[in-house]
Amino acid sequence: MLETERHRIILSAVQERPVVTVADLCALTTASEATVRRDIAQLHLAKKLRRVRGGAEAISPPQFVGINARPFAVNQTINIAQKRAIAQAAVELCEDGDAIIINGGTTTFQMVHPLTTKRLQVFTNSFPIAEHLLKQSKNTVMLPAGAIYREQNIILSPFDDDGSNHFYARRMFMGCRGLGPLGLMEGDPLLVQAEQKLIGQADELVVLADSSKFSQRSSLLLCPLSRIHTVITDDGIDDRAAAMLEAADIRLIVAEALRDTRTRAED
After folding, report:
1. CA atoms within 13 Å, Cβ hemisphere of 51
2. Half-sphere exposure of 106 (CA within 13 A, CB side)
3. Which end of the chain is flanked by fewer CB atoms within 10 Å, N or C?
4. Strand order in the sheet with 183-186
5. How far apart are alpha carbons 94 and 48 in whole angstroms?
6. CA–CA distance from 133 to each of 33, 77, 91, 163, 252 (Å)?
7. Considering the entire predicted model, what is its pTM?
């Protein structure tokens, strides 16, 4: 990744929450700790952020503190070829007439393009997914009540009665912060609350997780492996992660990513 691209991602991340750690920025940029620390130092000298112990913070933090999740715009630049392949495999599980739930995220957003050929009932808390399907497809689209979190482009509500309990789905498709032996992980309590409500409205939970998610961890557990029916990932999954899913009796679908070297340069 070019230095200018790293700087753009770092500056976007520090506007998301009060303090961003070096480890978080390494994961976002796929750069080494030494490189990230050097980037922080350069941006600090340029007065574009403030260097703090173990990370960085915005010079003028936003008045509205969002949820603890990466901005949608930042996530769109990461592992895009893998996400497209995973999303295509997810849509192949759907048949016309199905009722499905799609949770907000950049991997699930890639489902919108193949979904334009389907006629489904779609319940989603993703504003961009809903907008695209309304404009480009004949799917029926439903949204929950709540506030739109601009950075992540999702609709969340702290209240139980957000409308989701009136929708029943054959499958729910969702991404995650991390996936490990204990189950699915997320980074914010409000996300966990909203996603647990949606999971309860579907027969099957289908997790869309590129292979990097098997090495990522978070402090919040969303659900155990036993609740997951299917995991769709890319061909970068290692044997250990595959064995973990097999031991949990989870169906594994591996999608082969068609990598385009132009993608990163154009983002």
Report:
1. 12
2. 19
3. C
4. 178-180, 183-186, 220-223
5. 46
6. 40, 21, 13, 20, 27
7. 0.72
Name the burial class of residue 203, with classes exposed (0-12), middle (13-18) and buried (19+) by CB atoms within 10 angstroms of its CB: exposed
Residues 165 and 262: their CA atoms lie apart, in Å, by 43
SS (H, E, C) 77-111: CCCHHHHHHHHHHHHCCCCCCCEEEECCCHHHHCC
- From 40-49, 151-160, 237-246, the region with the lowest mean pLDDT: 151-160
Tell me the pLDDT tens digit for each residue of 89-104.
999 999 999 999 999 9
β 220-223/183-186 pair status: antiparallel
Q: Which carries the bigger pLDDT value, residue 263 or residue 214?
A: 214
Q: Helix, strand, or coil here: 210?
A: coil
At residue 72, the pLDDT reads 63
